[in-house]
Amino acid sequence: MIEVHAFATPNSVKVPIALEEIELAYALKPVNVREGVQRAPAFMVLNPNGKVPVLVDHVDGERLVLTESAAILVYLAEKTGKLLPERGAARARVFEQLFFHASGMSPAFGNAGFFKRSSPEPQPIAEARFTGEAERILGLLDSKLANQAFAAGDDFTIADVAHFAWLWRRQFLGLTLDGRPNLSRWYDAVADRPAVQRAIARVEALVPAA
Fold it and tell me: Distance (Å, rounded) from C-alpha 142 to C-alpha 154?
């Protein structure tokens, strides 16, 4: 069975969402990043970069350990033939959105959250820089979704999984979808998917009770 080492983080939740959507069985292994477990020696063997998620699969009798959420999404889509078009422009559009996510959305949102919530000292310039970039990206997505149902076109793909994961934690960053009707429509449609709801419930259950 596939193992997913994760916590209730935006990058982590991408993997269970994809697995629930493609209906592959998996076991969730908690990595409490709030307590620094991602830097423990046992976890660093899996990912020397000390970050979640990590996927462990067995392929042709060999153990595959895969890191980086976007790479995991592509692997699962190609493994099953789901959530990613086989060829042509439709496939290219999914990768376009995945690269946009990895190079733009994820760093902007992650840094906005850090400087707003976790920085040891206030850094107003950095906070304004990354929050402004996150807002700009929300505007780009809202414009794109004015003419299509999902992030890369008319079908739900791993690009939607990636974008949704960070918007799922938007309150932590102080961001809203107010004034962005197309993005709000898309977000609600994704959040209403049963597979997405199952994945979120499983990930949130990894957090120890206070």
Answer: 15
